Amino acid sequence: MPKSLWLVLLLVPIAPAYAAGTDSPAQQLLIAAELQASLFHGQITPFDLDIDFTAQLNVPTRGHLKLKWAAVDRWWRKIELGAFEQIDIRNGDKLHTTRNISFTPIPVRELIDLVEFAENPGQLVAKKLKQRAENGVQMVCLQVEQRNVKGRPHEVCIDAFTHDVLSDRWEDSPDEHPRAQYSDYLAFGAHRYPRHLELRQNGSRLVDATVRSLTTSPFDESLLVPPQGATERRECADMIPAVPIKTEAPYYARSAIENHLAGDTAIAITIPTDGSVTNIHLIGSSL
């Protein structure tokens, strides 16, 4: 693994709680960059975040995200995309969601992933490191993998001097290569956060988001009262995501097999505590 003196010197003073002696320079740099961009870790002052965005539905559609944050487990968020509206309320270990349709559109989930791109520091493991320059910017690009998850390696590129995360590229399938890009960073307290966030796939823009304001603001505790009919979920510390016990092989038409055609289909389902499956919706298809 290549190492240079300037990289080691930059890494030493940042995120000492994470930078154990056994961590590689690549891992130290990754964690330092995540902690620097994470609005929700080490932030003690309530704040408001306003984002305008455009997402690709059948056509490019405008939306807005409003977040009122008091603590990691106390916040209110509203997302609008065209006629769609969703409100999420986190209070302690409970997350309440209301929306005007029975599922969350894929572009809304993609937007949330963009906004929260640095909110799980330490969950990614840097495997390899290389240095390069693009458009006059010196950067360090890391091959990273999600801890305890096989496959889907990412390439995360970080500004070598500011430690700003510039991009994250991965492979969903042989034909799909999403790339998240972050730019125009602003200082906010002890953090730096991008004004511009973008998700592209194979060159096409899927989500284009711009931070309109990020300001400290008192938090209204009445926002934590969930509206009637809200769906309640648990958000426990160190919660392990569900994994499929058994996955049936999909049926392929003979013509698709002969022509080596493949496609992805996304569905949304709700699984109540009794283990049954309800609210099945087709929310995305490449066909």
How much of the polypeptide forms β-strand, as a percent range?
over 45%
Biggest β-sheet description: 13 strands, antiparallel
Low-confidence parts, pLDDT < 50 over ≥5 residues?
1-21
By DSSP, the count of extended strands is: 15
Gyration radius, rounded:
20 Å
* Tally of helical runs: 4
Structural class determined from secondary elements: mainly beta
Measure the end-to-end span.
42 Å
Helix and strand sequence:
HHEEEEEHEEEEEEEEHEE
Helical percent range? 10-25%
Q: Which shape, going by the Cα principal axes? A: globular
Instruction: Return the average pLDDT rounded to an integer.
Output: 83
Could you explain the architecture of this structure?
- This protein is mainly beta and 287 residues long.
- The protein is 12% helix and 45% strand.
- It is built from four helices and 15 strands.
- The strands form two sheets. It has a 13-stranded antiparallel sheet with strand order 6-7-8-9-10-11-12-1-2-3-4-5-13, covered by helices on one side. The chain has a two-stranded antiparallel sheet with strand order 14-15.
- Helix 1 (5-11) crosses helix 2 (25-37).
- The longest helix has 13 residues, at 25-37.
- The radius of gyration is 20 Å and the shape is globular.
- 24% of the residues are buried.
- Mean pLDDT is 83; it is low at 1-21.
Task: List key phrases describing it.
single chain; 287 residues; mainly beta; 13-stranded antiparallel β-sheet; two-stranded antiparallel sheet; 12% helix; disordered N terminus
